[in-house]
Each structure stands twice: as structure tokens, then as C-alpha cells.
Design brief:
Layout lengths: L7 E5 L6 H14 L4 E4 L2 E2 L3 E3 L2 E3 L1 H10 L5 H4 L2 E2 L6 H8 L5 H14 L2 E5 L14 H8 L3 E7 L3 H14 L4 E8 L7 H12 L5 E2 L6
Parallel strand pairs: 1-7, 1-8, 2-7, 3-6, 8-9, 9-10
Antiparallel strand pairs: 4-5
Length: 212
């Protein structure tokens, strides 16, 4: 496993490109290496109702991957039922997503663990609210960003646009991971070569071929 920072925000070039799959894989690799990283999903929509309350399948996957017993509300402060953009899901639930609770939950996790890896929502430029961007959270936490690139037609464009947006937002990009999500994609190796050239660095990892 690459020597990733203790604190990290994992974003993607779009939605449904395997952020959860990648984050879980990194958490398992960290645990195997003796690093007790906590997986956090600050905001999640499309949650399921359980006896314990609304739960995000992504957040539960992170919990299983890191194997750490932490309060769910710290791992996923905003669990929204509607499977829609956070702003829409929050409005439907009568909830206002705010920066302070996210920072407080992260601080509580960080106080008792050596590091926290946060999984973002959708692509990098997807807003959390009309006033709150994912970049605002990253800057407030002062943590670097890891970009997951879903390998499919158009990924070079999406990766370049996302990289430029992260930098333009005043955030630090620590690297990228290639995730083959389209089994029918032509010339994936050549695409990785192009991505390496235009992004200026090779992928930290190329994930095994899976749907997510």
C-alpha cells in the first residue's frame, strides 16, 4: 500500500465510479499494515431505515472495512433517506447540512484514532448545500485529496477537469487511483498511460476490475 497521509478526503471524477470500493480497499490495506484508520462518510443520501435509525450502505461498508467500533453518528453525521443530491435529500428530510457538525464529528474521531479517511459524495464539484461545497470541508480540515478515476470512455476529460477544479479550489491533490468500472472499455492500459501524462503522475494503485 502506498504511504498515504493519515488524514485524507477521497473524491471522484463523477458519481458511481467506485469511491466506496476504493476507500474500503484502502482501509483494509491500512488495517493489514497495522494502521487503524477510521472511514468516515460525512454526508450520505439514499440511506436505509433500520432499527437503529437511518443508515448509509457506504458508511456501513467503511465500518466493516476498518473494523473499528465507533459511534455511527460520528462516522456518518448526515444520513439522508432520499436517493438524490445532498441538497435535495436534506430539504426533503427537513435537515440543514452545516459545516460545524461535520468538523465536530471529525474532531471526535481524530481524538481517539491516528487518522480519518473521508469519502466524499458524487464528484468533486457536487455541492453539499447551496452555501457549502465539499472544498469548504476539505479546506476547513486542512487535509489533502485523493482522486478516484473511473476508467471508462471520457475518463481523461473527467480526470483533468476534476484535477484542475481541486487545485483551483485551493486544495492539495495527493494522487489518484484508477478504478476499472467498464469491462467493455477499449484500451484501458493506454488510457492509464494518457492519464499519467496529463495528470503528471502515475496512479497510486490500479484497482482490480469490479463494478464498484
Amino acid at each position: 500500500m502506498q504511504n498515504l497521509p493519515s488524514d485524507l478526503y477521497i473524491t471522484g471524477t463523477d458519481t458511481e465510479i467506485g469511491k466506496t470500493f476504493v476507500t474500503c480497499a484502502l482501509l483494509r490495506q491500512a488495517a493489514e499494515a497495522g494502521r487503524r484508520q477510521v472511514g468516515m462518510k460525512p454526508v450520505a443520501s439514499g440511506c436505509i431505515e433500520t432499527a437503529e435509525g437511518w443508515r448509509s450502505e457506504d458508511a456501513l461498508a467503511l465500518q466493516q472495512a476498518d473494523g473499528l467500533d465507533v459511534p455511527y453518528t460520528l462516522r456518518n453525521p448526515y444520513a439522508l433517506p432520499l436517493p438524490a443530491a445532498p441538497e435535495i435529500a436534506a430539504a426533503q428530510a427537513g435537515v440543514e447540512i452545516a459545516l460545524a457538525p461535520l468538523l465536530a464529528a471529525h474532531a471526535d474521531l481524530r481524538a481517539s484514532h491516528p487518522g480519518v479517511w473521508l469519502e466524499g459524495v458524487g464528484g468533486w464539484a457536487a455541492p453539499l448545500t447551496a452555501q457549502l461545497e465539499q472544498a469548504d470541508l476539505v479546506r476547513a480540515l486542512d487535509i489533502p485529496v485523493l482522486m478516484v478515476v473511473g476508467l471508462r470512455l471520457g475518463c481523461v476529460h473527467q480526470a483533468r477537469v476534476t484535477q484542475r477544479a481541486i487545485v483551483a479550489d485551493g486544495c492539495r491533490l495527493v494522487g489518484w487511483i484508477a478504478n476499472p468500472i467498464d469491462p467493455a472499455m477499449l484500451r484501458p492500459a493506454e488510457n492509464i498511460d494518457i492519464l499519467t501524462r496529463v495528470l503528471g503522475t502515475p496512479p497510486l494503485q490500479v484497482m482490480p476490475r469490479r463494478a464498484k
